[in-house]
Structures are given as C-alpha cells and as structure tokens.
Structure prediction request, 227 residues.
Amino acid sequence: MLRLLPSSHALSALLPRPPLSVLAVVALSTMLAMSSAALSFAGPALAPKLASSAVSMRAEGEIGVTPPLGVYDPLNLLATPVEYPRRDYDRYVELEIKHGRISMLAVVGILTTEAGFRWPGYLSKSLDIKFADVPGGPFDSYAAVPAIGWLQIVSVIIFLELAYGATPPGNEPGDVGGISWIRYADPEVKKFKLNAERNNGRAAMMGITGMMVHNALGVDALFPIVQ
Prediction:
C-alpha cells in the first residue's frame, strides 16, 4: 500500500465507513452467490437427468468435474440452450475461477497476517497507525485501515479489473496472464493443474467465508486454532 498523505485524516472524515454488521451481511451474501457458481461444477456423482431432450449437460472429465464428485447442477445453470436470465457456461466458469483466485489470495493474506508478518513502517503517519497495528481478521483489519487507505486499495483493484480482468477473445476462461503465464504442453499435466486450481479456489471460497463468519461473531478468524 502507498504511504498515505498528511491530509489522510481529513479525507477519512469525508469518507464514512459502513457499520460492520452491514458489511458482514453484504460480504456473506456475496460469498453465498459465489458458492452457487461452484455448485454448478461439483457435486455428487449421480446427476439428475433433465427431462427435455433439447437440453444437454457438461460431461464427466471436463475441467472442474473431478472425482469423487461429478456433475451436479440443481440450479440448471449448465443447461443449453441458454435462456435469459442465465449466462452462458463460459461466463460461469470465468466467475468461479476469478472468485477462487481472489479467495485464495484472501486466505493467504489472513494466514500471513495472523502469523505475525507485517510491512515495516507506517500505514498512516498522520494518524500514527503502523502496519504492525493492523489485526489479521477480515473485519478487524477493515475497521483498522483508514477510509483513504481503502480508497487506494479499491482504486488499484478497479484498475486491475478493467485492464486485465476480462478473458481475451479466443482464450480459455481464466486465461488472462498474457505471455508471462505458465503454460503446459502435456495435456494431462495441464488438466491436473487446472483442476487443482479450480478445487483450491472452491476450498478457499469456503475458507474465507468461514473466517468472515468467525470474525463477525466476535472470535478470531482462525478460531478454534487461535482463540
């Protein structure tokens, strides 16, 4: 994070922070919405058969459909043809991959902070807040960072989303890395790596949701490991 300017105290006063209870409800609602996307790609091995012959399901063995789970789509998100308000299959894949990557970063961030690792120096010198003063919990850290600091964070995220967030035309869903992206020539290795990313992302979405629930209930994000 950039060092805050001396005027951050005044700017913080102009940018009110919503109550934690409201933030918790919004955050949990968002995570539940993300989880519904994951349900479209993993579930019990026995998938319900669709009545209409004009509707098809994704096949076993595709990326994201891994044993011992299988195709399970209670919301019928994978059915074709696509009818409003549903989006096409690739769009849901993009959303799941993106949410999984963000959740993995969030979980690693909380684990790193809870382990005691901090940036040196001041988060806000004018407010006398050091990085070492910021707690590890998702809502605790939200409350500790000045509003102008969150403005900087959100601005960077918006820039990254607009500049690099969308999958370029012709690329597979989630392939946004350009020439710097690690690619695998062996189809089996590539399939294993992509499935590992998808499943780790699903686990991270559940993990960060649990951490947020713990913190909202007044205990440590890593409860019961940390009490």
Observations:
- Helices lie at 8-14, 20-39, 89-114, 138-144, 147-164, 187-216.
- The CA atoms of residues 140 and 218 lie 10 Å apart.
